[in-house]
Amino acid sequence: MSGPAEPDAALVLSDVRKRYGTVRAVDGISLRVRRGEFFGVLGPNGAGKTTLIEIMEGLRVADSGAVSVLGHPPVPRDVALLPRLGVQTQKSAFFARLTAREHLETVARLYGVPAARAADHGLALVGLTEHADRRVEKLSGGQRQRLAIASALAHEPELIFLDEPTAALDPQARRDLWRVLRELKGAGRTIVYTTHHLDEAEALCDRVAIVVAGRVVALDTPVNLVGGAGLPTRVLVPEDRITPERAAGIDGVDRVSVSGGAVVLETMATARVLSALDDLIGLAGVQTRTADLEDVYLRLTGAEA
Ligand SMILES: Nc1ncnc2c1ncn2[C@@H]1O[C@H](COP(=O)(O)OP(=O)(O)OP(=O)(O)O)[C@@H](O)[C@H]1O
């Protein structure tokens, strides 16, 4: 299942399992990530995402199943494989007393790549150039997270693992990182990452796996997941324009609620409902919201409101 048999696969997992006592953290996961793919692993807290990614990284060892990383098993550690992987974990370690620049130079030297150039490039990549001479221990949480990402990329790895890389970032820094990740993908790198930001996964990922209780419950492109879910469109009408009772009487409306100053009409027949609304009250102020990945996710993870 590895090497020449799957030359275009960055990762192949077959029936991978990992237990902690009675907890089945990873409970029989099989998946395949293509080279050059941007692959998202989504799921609620405790679903097993970190365990799964750390098995791929070789940081944890599966109880059973097969794992192939760029055609090689991740354990025992393979010194030829390690430089091809970039790893940012939720608990990234730092040289806290060094400056951001010194930290990156040290990481670069560990990988045997030119230190000054790697540090300059890494600092610019994640927007830390102006903080280059600040000690790591004095950086904010979000700045440290960006440094962790730059550290994972210092040696220009082929396959990049990022565990919630945008968790501590403000909206602007998040968007900046999106740009960096898109550029990496554009340069042919493979990215496997976890996030709780569903809008982000929808914007960035070629495919996502939704993991619940150690199992993959859905795996596809965001477009196919949303399109295949058969979820209703919401039509929002300002509350002063229509009563919920009147809205419920419109042909094609399946459900009506009131939220945020709007009467919310759920429908699978959007065009028919909009046309009826137009005849009844006109469409001024009316908004439509189609289902997105977050709606699919909430349904699959059982957290639908
Ligand atoms: N070292 C460990 N020892 C015992 N149990 C563990 C260990 N690591 C994880 N677990 C348990 O395994 C399950 C999966 O944890 P994991 O951290 O992989 O989930 P996650 O999806 O990454 O969660 P989060 O979104 O909160 O980061 C949880 O029930 C967790 O408590």
- How much strand? 25-35%
Bound molecules: adenosine-5'-triphosphate
Our measurement of the CA-to-CA distance between the termini, rounded to an integer number of angstroms, reads: 41 Å
Helix percent reads 25-40%
Main β sheet profile? 6 strands, mixed
Structural class: alpha/beta
Tell me the strand order in the biggest sheet.
Answer: 5-6-7-3-8-9
Uncertain runs are none
Please compute the radius of gyration using only Cα atoms: 23 Å
Distinct helical segment count: 10
Which fold does the CATH topology of the largest domain refer to? Rossmann fold
By CATH, the superfamily of the largest domain comes out as P-loop containing nucleotide triphosphate hydrolases
Give the second-level CATH assignment, the architecture of the largest domain. 3-Layer(aba) Sandwich
Along the chain, the helix and strand elements come as EEEHEEHHHEHEHEEHEHEEHEH
CATH class of the largest domain: Alpha Beta
Membrane topology: Peripheral membrane protein
GO biological process, one term: response to antibiotic
Subcellular location: Cell membrane
Keywords: Antibiotic resistance, ATP-binding, Cell membrane, Membrane, Nucleotide-binding, Translocase, Transport
Report on the structure:
- The protein contains 10 helices and 13 strands.
- A hairpin with a 2-residue loop joins β8 and β9.
- The chain has helices at 49-57, 100-110, 115-125, 141-153, 171-186, 198-204, 222-228, 244-248, 270-281, 293-300, and strands at residues 9-20, 23-34, 38-42, 64-69, 85-88, 159-163, 190-194, 207-212, 215-220, 233-238, 253-259, 262-267, 287-289.
- α2 packs across α3 (115-125).
- Helices cover 32% and strands 27% of the residues.
- The relative contact order is 0.13.
- The longest helix is centred in the middle third of the chain and has 16 residues, at 171-186.
- The mean pLDDT is 92.
- It folds into 2 domains: 3-220, Rossmann fold; 228-292, Alpha-Beta Plaits (2-Layer Sandwich), CATH 3.30.70.
- The protein is α/β, with parallel strands linked by helices and 305 residues long.
- Bound molecules: adenosine-5'-triphosphate.
- The site of adenosine-5'-triphosphate has 11 residues, from β2 and α1.
- Residues 20, 23, 25, 43, 45-51 line the site of adenosine-5'-triphosphate (ATP).
- Keywords: Antibiotic resistance, ATP-binding, Cell membrane, Membrane, Nucleotide-binding, Translocase, Transport.
- It is a peripheral membrane protein.
- Pfam families: ABC_tran.
- Belongs to the ABC transporter superfamily.
